[in-house]
From TrEMBL:
The lineage of its organism: Eukaryota, Metazoa, Spiralia, Lophotrochozoa, Platyhelminthes. InterPro entries: Nucleotide-bd_a/b_plait_sf, RBD_domain_sf, RBM48. PANTHER family: RNA-BINDING PROTEIN 48. It comes from Protopolystoma xenopodis. GO terms for molecular function: nucleic acid binding. It comes from the Eukaryota. One of its GO terms (cellular component) is nucleoplasm. This is RNA-binding protein 48.
Length: 256
């Protein structure tokens, strides 16, 4: 008598059989789209966050023809492949097929590989690819979040340098109409100088994140005070310094 298997978070269960989660299953195509949005090929409605994406991929539907080297060469077109191995006793394995777990060098490489290889023919079979963030370690997860925050900061900084972000604010909050000063107590309407959120690197994602938010005046006890009416809340570069909580950097007790 076979007992139905469910994913368990114990290391013993992982050693016996690899975990399987609902997001490993293929999502059906959306059939309720309006005619003007419905293409020739039916697509599913999917949305991924940074927590859903991962450098680990699960490839299902690979024919059992010893195609590990061929599959690795195919994945190298999108980036370096750190590791690839077969998942034995995977719950959703079809007959005469194998399931592989692949670790790409970065989330971007994994994203491109999933985009261009998902639901493609491979030696007579159809490959289905899904993200597998459950294989990430704590350090890999922190690096992934740190890189995402760094890319967002670079994007905002380039947008600020190009001048496109200045159109979102009234004239009284422009750089040319205000004086930048190091003393926040001398003027009421000031702004902080533009700064890339990840300019200081402590080689640790958590420490860099704490330092970034501490520079904006936030800590575990106090929160950023809301801006007055009529002032934008979308960018920290134009936040008046009078509304920020300036911490005492001489007494570095943050996070202790």
């Amino acid at each position: 008598m076979s007992i139905p298997w469910h994913p368990i978070e114990s290391s013993v269960a992982h050693a016996v059989r690899p975990p399987a989660y609902p997001y490993h299953l293929k999502v059906g195509a959306c059939l309720t789209r309006p005619a003007y949005r419905d293409g020739k090929i039916k697509r599913a409605v999917k949305s991924f966050t940074i927590a859903d994406e991962s450098c680990y991929l699960i490839l299902k539907g690979v024919p059992s023809l010893d195609l590990e080297k061929v599959l690795k060469e195919k994945l190298k077109k999108f980036g370096a492949v750190d590791s690839i191995r077969v998942l034995d006793d995977y719950p959703y394995t079809e007959s005469f097929t194998q399931v592989f777990v692949v670790k790409m060098s970065s989330v971007l490489s994994a994203r491109n590989a999933k985009r261009y290889l998902d639901e493609t023919t491979f030696f007579g079979g159809v490959i289905y690819i899904c993200y597998a963030p459950e294989y990430e370690s704590v350090a890999e997860c922190r690096i992934k979040l740190h890189m995402c925050r760094r890319q967002n900061g670079e994007h905002d900084f380039k947008k600020y340098i190009s001048g496109s972000s200045q159109q979102q604010f009234p004239a009284e909050f422009s750089i040319t109409s205000m004086d930048l000063t190091k003393d926040p107590s001398t003027h009421e309407n000031q702004i902080l100088p533009p700064e890339l959120p990840c300019t200081s690197h402590a080689l640790d994602a958590l420490d860099d994140s704490r330092e970034y938010w501490r520079r904006l005046g936030a800590d575990y006890v106090k929160k950023l005070e809301p801006l007055a009416e009529g002032k934008s809340k979308s960018s920290p570069y134009y936040r008046p310094a009078s509304n920020l909580i300036i911490p005492d950097l001489t007494n570095d007790s943050f996070g202790s």
